[in-house]
Amino acid sequence: MLVSAAAATDRQKAPHAAHPLARDPEPHDGPLRVLGISTTVMDPAHPRTSTSELLLDAALAHGRAHGLETRMLKLSELGFRACEGFYSKSAQACTWPCSITQMDPKDQMEQVYEGIVHWADVILVATPIRWGAASSLYHKMVERMNCVQNQVTIRDKVLIRDKVAGFVITGGQDNIQAVAGSMLGFFAEIGCIFPPFPYVAHSRGWSAEDMENNVRSVEGSEELREGTRGLLDRCVELARGLRERRSCATKVPRGGRKAHRDRTR
What we know:
Elements: E1 33-38, H1 51-65, E2 69-74, H2 86-89, H3 99-103, H4 109-119, E3 122-128, H5 136-144, H6 146-155, E4 164-171, H7 176-189, E5 199-203, H8 211-219, H9 222-250, H10 256-264
Helix pairs in contact: 1-9
């Protein structure tokens, strides 16, 4: 058998420096960080009220009032390409960061990756209900996050640890629990954890076709705002507990290994 070390085909990808997103996630000191992601498909040039974004904004304002760092990402204001299914061709072809992000400097999915993987302690995702499902922009985003989950599959590398997720779901149609179940399933798959009652939702039902009244009912509901503030409080409480657990785990007991053995008995 003749084995040649030379490649049979020319290299298609020129040597390049590692992408900034490829760095290892690191814990941080200071206030907890809350990332809000609005997935409503509203045209920024023709602004209208988004009930899901309205409630998400109330949660973030509540966080800022209590000393948290907050950041809002509106997917409708980001330009990013749809997933091109590299994983369906070869698991190794689905890279971290996403190949599209590495090849296309105009692809703004980088902001989502940076926020979720490196910046946030708490992630709040808001979506309207569209034909019984989350918004099309939500699905466009999560398909592009296959590369986060795939790192566990092909490299045994977990990018998301001890991050808490919660959801805000509103719509003029039913199917809240199916939408929530899909979102919970995906974010659990990439490594997030959840507090009790991990989502706040509102729907007036399938027969409520008077959308203008649906908007009014959310705009005028202090109960829904209070619900989203409570959701954030539960997420933050869990995130603080996780931070304290990490801090305790990194402390070395005095007295060396014997003291450690005595403490664990």
